[in-house]
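ARCHIVE CARD
CATEGORY: sequence design from structure
SOURCE FIELD: tokenized fold
FIELD CONTENT:
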């Protein structure tokens, strides 16, 4: 049981760390001239950064930003709820509440990455999706697996 709890805890912490990195790191899109994330655009030539602005797509950008921030918040809240449930949950009960928060985190990161995929850079040929974008998509199955494991898991002594 200790090994199972440790592996679930490590999976959850890995998902949180990857969510933080994908939300804050500056490589959602990269080309030879610049790289950009959901917050700012940085140019390699003169080492300057500016706020990201997409004409006519501000609401989609805000959706991506909100989705990623909410994913991090739900994952962190789920971690603290899991720790609390370890000490307060009765023997034989399931970690449903923790699983629910992980599922909300999963849905938020999936929504944010999907909106970014559909509405940004779809017609650009020079450049590619960056590491933060890929990490966001990796966080989706990690949080989904974590939420399923929490729902299945029962507390034992």
């Amino acid at each position: 049981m200790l090994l199972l709890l440790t592996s679930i805890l490590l999976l959850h912490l890995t998902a949180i760390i990857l969510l933080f990195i994908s939300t804050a790191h500056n490589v959602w899109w990269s080309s030879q001239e610049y790289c950009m994330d959901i917050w700012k655009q940085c140019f390699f030539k003169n080492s300057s950064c500016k706020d990201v602005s997409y004409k006519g797509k501000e609401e989609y950008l805000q959706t991506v930003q909100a989705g990623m921030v909410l994913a991090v918040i739900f994952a962190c809240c789920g971690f603290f709820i899991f720790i609390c449930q370890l000490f307060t949950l009765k023997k034989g009960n399931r970690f449903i509440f923790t699983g629910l928060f992980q599922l909300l985190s999963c849905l938020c990161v999936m929504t944010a990455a999907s909106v970014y995929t559909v509405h940004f850079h779809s017609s650009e040929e020079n450049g590619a999706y960056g590491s933060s974008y890929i990490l966001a998509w990796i966080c989706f199955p990690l949080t989904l697996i974590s939420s399923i494991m929490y729902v299945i898991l029962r507390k034992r002594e």
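CARD ANNOTATION: The two ends are 8 Å apart (CA to CA). The longest strand covers residues 40-43.
SHELF: design records, drawer C
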